[in-house]
Automatic annotation (TrEMBL):
This is Sugar ABC transporter permease. It is found in: Cell membrane. It comes from the Bacteria. Keywords: Cell membrane, Membrane, Transmembrane, Transmembrane helix, Transport. Pfam families: BPD_transp_1.
Length: 311
């Protein structure tokens, strides 16, 4: 009997250990459950609904939409307005990303220079980062005032004799795309500047000293030391900025609204107008799905790059 009692007492804790182990296994999933539910509710489900809308005609406004399959995609992909918006988006994006990289690199190298005193360096850092602090709406209002025919920029250009008459930069088809691109460049370069400045501060000064000993000048040091050290940062930031710029909406909508005559029509404003101006929700959903597909391609490259850096 005594041996049986000892065996029972020895076997009793086993179910508790099993219960405790099961709880420990479930605990991580319970912790991430709220985040998973939010992602499902705010991202996965809406994306699935939009994809579904793109396969039907007369959705939202019609209680009995008609399934049309890929017909909406054929209509959008053969639309001159869509390709016009795509072309504007391409020009706007490529010019913005390249300018962000060049200006951000130039300012980062200037602020990282040892020849500049500490106090002026701090002042310039505060000044150069200001565009990144403003929201897109504030930037749009500010530049609309500056580029107004009676604004500061036209006053300076006419005073210097660069132009004879005031130019409506945002109201002329030939200058509107250039104007919004300049605005986006001005508001976005601090992101590159800050990131590249952090990268430059992590580059060992011994590498530059060794390059100088070998007789390398400024440009040779830049090509052989600076660029290789910053290449991972530049690549990741370029892909990230590419995603952000292609989806720029607030700045365009608050400055030109996609006009004049579609000169600044982007894919974002094109999709918005289809949905809320023309009430063509099926076509708007189709356009949004195409933009999502293009963004996913860029996102895949970005994630793969991040994994390579982590390894």
């Amino acid at each position: 009997m005594a041996q049986n009692d000892q065996r029972k007492r020895a076997a009793a804790p086993a179910p508790r250990r099993h219960h405790r182990t099961l709880k420990e296994r479930l605990e991580p999933y319970l912790l991430i459950a709220p985040t998973v539910l939010l992602i499902l509710g705010l991202m996965v489900v809406p994306i699935a609904i939009v994809i579904g809308y793109s396969l039907y005609d007369n959705v939202v406004t019609n209680p009995n939409p008609v399934f049309v399959g890929a017909a909406n995609y054929v209509t959008i992909l053969t639309s001159p307005a869509f390709w016009g918006a795509a072309g504007n988006t391409l020009v706007f994006t490529v010019a913005s990303v390249v300018a962000h990289m060049v200006i951000g690199m130039a300012f980062a190298m200037m602020l990282n220079s040892k020849t500049m005193a500490r106090v002026p360096r701090a002042i310039f850092r505060a000044i150069y980062i200001l565009p990144w602090i403003f929201t897109a709406s504030v930037v749009a209002v500010l530049w609309r005032l500056l580029l107004d025919p009676s604004g500061v920029i036209n006053y300076l250009l006419t005073s210097l004799g660069v132009v004879h008459d005031a130019v409506p930069w945002l109201g002329t088809a030939s200058t509107a795309l250039l104007a919004v691109t300049v605005i986006n460049i001005w508001s976005g370069y601090p992101f590159f500047m800050i990131s590249l400045l952090a990268g430059l501060q992590n580059v060992s000064t011994d590498l530059y000293e060794a390059a100088r000993v070998d007789g390398a000048g400024f440009f040779r040091q830049f090509a052989s030391v600076t660029l290789p050290a910053l290449r991972p940062i530049l690549y990741s930031m370029a892909l990230l900025d590419l995603l952000w710029t292609t989806q720029q909406f607030t700045l365009i909508w608050a400055t030109t609204g996609g006009g004049p005559l579609g000169a600044t029509e982007m894919l974002s404003t094109f999709t918005y107008k289809l949905a809320f101006n023309s009430y063509q929700f099926s076509m708007a959903s189709t356009s949004a799905v195409l933009v999502l597909a293009a963004s996913l391609i860029v996102a895949v490259f970005y994630v793969r790059r991040q994994r390579k850096e982590a390894q």
